[in-house]
């Protein structure tokens, strides 16, 4: 076979291969209906509020006067008593001195009372949100309806990739 015949045969084979393959092209279809695909999502959150409660406050007292008064009373009682009565006089002086010292030291002390205190109360509540996660699109192409789920709303028409395959028996 000569070179020219081989080239013609090769060209014919290459031409028939491309005809046997599927043909793809782009076209448009008319959108008939768009249905958003909505899901409910729970995003819990905290709700807090401040309440005021009454709290009993103890009196503000100092122990310094009792201590100093007790020591001074013990020293004074120790000077007064004699013999075995000295111990009793020291103890009585310490008790009397502590009582007097406490009264002198705390005579201007603030009395206890009721105050209000802020208390923060929090709780977790459900917070449901609607989220669109796609669109069910029904479209018409050459008299037939098709449905697909897309991540966006295509509008009034949809761009299509059309594939044509030959039927082989």
UniProtKB/TrEMBL annotation:
<dbReference type="InterPro" id="IPR008816">
    <property type="entry name" value="Gly_zipper_2TM_dom"/>
</dbReference>
<feature type="signal peptide">
    <location>
        <begin position="1"/>
        <end position="22"/>
    </location>
</feature>
<dbReference type="Pfam" id="PF05433">
    <property type="entry name" value="Rick_17kDa_Anti"/>
</dbReference>
<keyword id="KW-0732">Signal</keyword>
<dbReference type="InterPro" id="IPR051407">
    <property type="entry name" value="Bact_OM_lipoprot/Surf_antigen"/>
</dbReference>
<feature type="domain" description="Glycine zipper 2TM">
    <location>
        <begin position="64"/>
        <end position="104"/>
    </location>
</feature>
<keyword id="KW-0472">Membrane</keyword>
<protein>
    <submittedName>
        <fullName>Uncharacterized conserved protein YcfJ, contains glycine zipper 2TM domain</fullName>
    </submittedName>
</protein>
<dbReference type="GO" id="GO:0019867">
    <property type="term" value="C:outer membrane"/>
</dbReference>
